[in-house]
Amino acid sequence: MAEKFVLATHNPGKLAEMKAILSGLGVEVVSPSEAGMEVDVEETGSTFAENAMLKAKAVCAAAGLPAIADDSGLCVNALNGGPGVYSARYGGEELDDRGRCMLLLNSMRGQATRAAHFSCAIACAFPNGDTLEAEGRCDGAIAFAPLGTGGFGYDPVFLIPGRGKTFGQLSAEEKSAISHRGKALAAFAEKLGTYLKK
Ligand code: ITT
Description:
The chain has about 200 residues and is α+β, with helices and mostly antiparallel strands. It has helices at about 10-25, 50-65, 95-105, 170-180, 180-195; strands spanning about 5, 30, 65-75, 80-85, 115-125, 130-140, 160, 165. Inosine 5'-triphosphate (ITT) binds near residues 73, 118, 152 and 154.
């Protein structure tokens, strides 16, 4: 797979995971800054898939290269599926990852129903107008306190069933083997392989 892809994300945590997984699959990837571009895309979609495609198409158009985007988030049953597509903006712009985790734990105080899942939609847009899509999901539960310093975002408060550990307590490789992003990128890689053979 010789073609070069731009990873359409500004999130360093996502970028590192996407780079590691896709490079392992023999796909050459560059970050937006390595491609010499800075594109801010408004995420106006109501689903992860719509937002991923908006980002992939905008970056593809700006770079003139195929672009791969990820839209993802944490869906909590007791919060009616929230924060969902608003995960990055949960609690407002002024909060950082740690602040969003603490807000989530506060919102869940006294809540016995802790079930939650991460969702990830991957979209790829090519300069000729072709597109590819894939999705992945990882089921788990919201912890009662943050655990671990690995990963990013809500990782320290996302418990993996049967492991007694949060995503924040896993290595990058361990997380990608079971995560929503790992699953979505594996499904995407299969579609990309078929597409590139055509
Ligand atoms: P880009 O749009 O530039 O890719 P973003 O962070 O704004 O970056 P999203 O709109 O897709 O991306 O928001 C996803 C949010 O969901 C992210 O900021 C985290 O808070 C959370 N999230 C997604 N995947 C996660 C993961 O693997 N571990 C922890 N939190 C995750």
